[in-house]
Amino acid sequence: MVLPLNIPAHPYFTDEELVAFCMANPDLNVERDEHGQLHITITPTFLLGSSDNSELLAEIALWNSKFKAGKVIESNGAFFLNDKSMRVPDVAWIHINRWNALSTAEKKSFPHF
Question: Which of 8, 65, 85, 110 is most exposed, with the fewest beta carbons within 10 Å of its own?
Fold first, then answer.
């Protein structure tokens, strides 16, 4: 379930403000869509969904382990996209060249892709 979050006094967060908001609220799963709308993702998932997510993560991790082509990111890793959204996917894969181009500070935050 995804719930929209409206903060009337502050209708839009910059990327830096969004990161600060997420760090100040570590128990919330926050995403921002391409229109600037914040969303809170309610967890946990049902067992079937969790099982499917685990299988997907395992398949991508096994493939990546074989080819050493990048880094696999699980469901707690967030990043900004070109459309100004910030997403937290169930699983993501980052090509090794993009990973190596990230600074240590970017790897310890939410990088822009």
Answer: 8
In order, the DSSP letters of 15-73 are HHHHHHHHHH-TTSEEEE-TTS-EEEE--PPPHHHHHHHHHHHHHHHHHHHHH--EEEE
Cα gap 45→64, rounded to integer Å: 25
CB neighbourhood size of 73 (10 A) = 19
Tokens matching residue 74:
């699980």
Residue 111's pLDDT is: 96
Q: Residue 90 and residue 77: Cα distance in Å, rounded?
A: 9
pTM score: 0.81
CA 93/CA 62 separation, integer angstroms: 12
